[in-house]
């Protein structure tokens, strides 16, 4: 059992996502339909890996994360994976750190955690989009 010091002002949403994280794990990063975002915050040492799996229609059908960091970073990652699932790639780009922070009731000192989550989503989407571009030489063959 993990104990959290509630005197630091963590919301019940943060505690819930920390104690019961959703979508922990990894997807096959070599798969063409999987995008991987790896981001970190040197100031606090948090590192976040977020992956998305996209179907042929451009809808995110799965998302996974692994985060090394505080409870707020883990909660932000967990919530981000829940929010991207079912969205199109374009819709997922509209998820903002301010929305994550508001949903989790993050205190100002923990806002960098929601910023990391937004950055991880954007990095995963960028990686996915890069994989969709034809490789040099492939386009000429067609």
UniProtKB/TrEMBL annotation:
Any GO MF annotation of the entry: iron-sulfur cluster binding
Q: Which GO terms describe its biological process?
A: [4Fe-4S] cluster assembly
Matching entries from InterPro entries are given as: ISCU, NIF_FeS_clus_asmbl_NifU_N
Organism superkingdom: Eukaryota
Q: Which residues cross the membrane?
A: none
| Gene Ontology CC, one term | mitochondrial [2Fe-2S] assembly complex
* CDD domains in UniProt: IscU_like
Q: Which UniProt keywords apply?
A: Iron, Metal-binding, Transit peptide
- The stretch of residues making up the signal peptide is none
Q: Where is the NIF system FeS cluster assembly NifU N-terminal domain?
A: 12-132
Q: Does the keyword Nuclease apply?
A: no
Reported function: Mitochondrial scaffold protein, of the core iron-sulfur cluster (ISC) assembly complex, that provides the structural architecture on which the [2Fe-2S] clusters are assembled. The core iron-sulfur cluster (ISC) assembly complex is involved in the de novo synthesis of a [2Fe-2S] cluster, the first step of the mitochondrial iron-sulfur protein biogenesis. This process is initiated by the cysteine desulfurase complex (NFS1:LYRM4:NDUFAB1) that produces persulfide which is delivered on the scaffold protein ISCU in a FXN-dependent manner.
As for family, the record states: Belongs to the NifU family.
Q: What is this protein called?
A: Iron-sulfur cluster assembly enzyme ISCU
């Amino acid at each position: 059992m993990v104990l959290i010091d509630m005197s630091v002002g963590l919301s019940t949403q943060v505690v819930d996502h920390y104690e019961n994280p959703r979508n922990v794990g990894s997807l096959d990063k070599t798969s063409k339909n999987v995008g991987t975002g790896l981001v970190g915050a040197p100031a606090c040492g948090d590192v976040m890996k977020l992956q998305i799996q996209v179907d042929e229609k451009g809808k995110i059908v799965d998302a996974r994360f692994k985060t090394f960091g505080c409870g707020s970073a883990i909660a932000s990652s967990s919530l981000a994976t829940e929010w991207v699932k079912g969205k199109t790639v374009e819709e997922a780009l509209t998820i903002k750190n301010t929305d994550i922070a508001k949903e989790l009731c993050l205190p100002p000192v923990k806002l960098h955690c929601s910023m990391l989550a937004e950055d991880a989503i954007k990095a995963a989407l960028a990686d996915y989009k890069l994989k969709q571009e034809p490789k040099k030489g492939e386009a000429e063959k067609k």
